[in-house]
Amino acid sequence: MADRRLSTPLLALDLDRTSKVPLHRQLYDQIREAVLAGHLPPGARLPSSRTLASELGCSRNTAVTAFDQLLSEGYLAGQVGSGTYISHVLPEELLSLSGSQRRGPAPREDVGPSARTRSRRRGLSKRGEVLAAFPRGRRIATRAFAPGLPELDLFPFDVWARLLGRVWRRPPESLKRHGDPAGYEPLRRAIADYLRSARGLICDWRQILITSGAQQGLDLVARTLLDPGDPVWFENPGYSGLRGPLFAAGAEAVPLPVDAEGISVAAGRERAPDARMAIVAPSHQYPLGVTMSLARRLELLAWAREADAWILEDDYDSEYRYAGRPLSALQSLDEADNGRVVYLGSFSKVMFPSLRLGYLVVPEDLIEPMGRARGTLDDHPTAITQPALAAFIAEGHFAAHVRRMRVLYAARQSVLLEEIGRELAGLLEAQPDEAGLHIVAYFSAALARRMSDQEATDRAAAAGLSVSPLSGYYDGAAERQGLMLGYAAVPEDEIRLAVRKLAGVLSR
Fold first, then answer.
1. Do 340 and 202 belong to one domain?
2. Is there a single domain that holds both residue 407 and residue 377?
3. What is each CA distance from 123 to 74, 118, 181, 188, in whole angstroms?
4. Residue 330 belongs to what domain range?
């Protein structure tokens, strides 16, 4: 019997990284076209998502997203323990009166409305297709070693409940009505005071816009400052959660390498000198933990002024710095008359994720247009938790909680590093990180020859551990294999047990 397995050369796939079309969409389109053209016969087996990603030099998430969409639309069929195959009956055949006809060449998407309708799920726009294709957020099954998860058991919920009750037992009339699109004024004032003292920001409370988290903040920025096709620099590797709003806005993502000083401005000038925006985490790059040097910060600001571009500064965990002096924000260096930096912050990692409150600090000339845009898109942020958070900050509870967590997290990082050195020597290599809620443990050469970090992640999940593969944060091939190990939410005894369990997983 002929072997029906297919290899990447037979698929003739080619991903164009200069295109504004997301890589997962390119992969989806090319596989679907090959199916409809009959180049991939019914029952043919596709390479695994891991194999395909490796051969195309893209992240496994890109291949998984494309496969998931093809599976959901009926072009592919999965068999547990066997692989992924071309469906014997395609969606077009089910919709056609002559479904028994032999498959012919795939219709071009520009031949008429019916062809365009068949190219995507019924009723979705092109932007909707992009959003629907993104993988769902990962549910965290265990604390060890989920990156980005803070310690929740020690949050002062008794204080929080008292502040909520104080406001809502007898709420003032103003809180029962529609609020300011920019947010509750006392909270905006409290945030501005905190940012000026703790982060060195140059800002007035009127520049603060309250959002329901970092991603909504980026969505607002993308909608108001970017046009479809605008190039946007982002860090590679970087936080994939910030890419969704960019793709939804039709922006062209330009991944740039990160070196010991931060994002490579020189590479950006070479690849997309006219980019409209750069998205960076200068204080503590995610996931590598690099701190952007002063020289690189000034270089980035100089480019933004020359190119008339914006910089979005993601300061996602600046509160948790364990060594050295706290670093001033990039925004504090932006002293030009017309600032180029939009500062993005969130309370999810400092307090608790379900709080869903964040903020933007915008240059003065953006206060009115972005406030109007905020009101148009979402009317106003919820007033339920804003007054309590304003009091939590103003009365010193926020600062006290941060100080307690700094001491706790520093101790937990120390225990994790000690256990890695004892239990995982020869397998993982990790160094102390001066900030953040996770460390990156790189694979030794011997371990990298035996398995990929994605395979290690799958094995760890089967053993009840939540780790993240470093390669999953790269656009394209990863420079090194490694695991992101979050420690903030994990008690010290649990860290020791989990490291031993991870050692058993990686040793097999």
1. yes
2. no
3. 17, 10, 31, 40
4. 180-382
